[in-house]
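User: For my dataset I need records formatted as: sequence, then structure tokens, nothing else. Please produce one.
Assistant:
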Amino acid sequence: APVAPAYTDYTSITGAMEAGSTYPISIGVSSAIGTTYNTNQALVWIDLNQDEDFDDAGEQVFVSTIGAVNAYTGDIAIPLGTMAGSTRMRIRLHDTYVGPDYVNNLNATPCGIASYGEVEDYTIMITQVGGGGYCSAGADGTGLGLDERIINVTVAGINNNSPNVAPVAPAYTDYTAVSGTMEVGNSYPISIGVSSAIGTTYNTNQALVWIDLNQDDDFDDAGEQVFVSAIGAVNAYTGTIVIPPGTMTGNTRMRIRLHDTYVGPDYVNNLNATPCGIASYGEVEDYTIMIDASTSMEDLSTMEWNVYPNPSNGDISILYGGKDAQVRLSLLDMAGRMVHEQQAYLINGQILPLSLAGKLAPGSYVIRFNSEMGRHEQRMIVR
């Protein structure tokens, strides 16, 4: 039996769906539910427009029949034109009973507490038709085989060791389960360790890094190539990555390519210094980067927000100085997980109290404000 509030964050588990396609879903339940709870139902929402709620038309993507079954099954359709990128899927198992036999605070919405059931969240990567998400990349060892390899990546909290053995074509590894955090406007040292042989004999090799700063599922936009190493035989290619002001916050992808720049008669080299496709030699690795708002105070003159005290024990007050508006407030931890959310209609000069003392672990959080005036963020520290 789940422990109240019967919610589990499984957003570290990611599935992929393509706009315009339909996917079968099965929501398995306990054997007791599958035989005796004949008023239960499963509901699913996906945040298709990635605005951090499930309130928009079409975002409820699955409503099961009501009954006692071992699994609620059906289909989820992702409409053509759905925004590409990483978003959240919420699943609620709930009781639809209305009657005199027992009290049931029925809740068939994506938010809030129901009397019975359970809620789980997952991550869905939406891709465009024919796009397949991020382009594939790697190396095939044309002519001389594969020997150059990445053995360590260290940047922004990532310190990932990969096997010091010759990669297997297409020499690509998905490490997107490994994540680091970078703040808008800040710079980060990066070290891309390579095998000892590369550090002595492969003097035409180079390391390249891209980050999908606008989170549009490619690395083609201006400024998304964030690191180009010197060419040479070294044990680690090192340098600095800068996250420019205005970068979209949230989880995105970082791609690292080790490749051979050689052009000449000595051997065949299908040189590829792009984030996509196959090179003759080298290796490609992908990681996840959580882009965070800057730790520096945001421009409160334009935000028209004042959060105090900061640091706090979790109990804060928010002074609102903007025009009267409906506002959605979200509190995220440094891994990008939402730990609190609420909506309110605020008027100029209103103070909104937020009582979370004892509910938050000590550390840094981001308060995100969404209204018709846009989205603004501010760092909050809990001690």
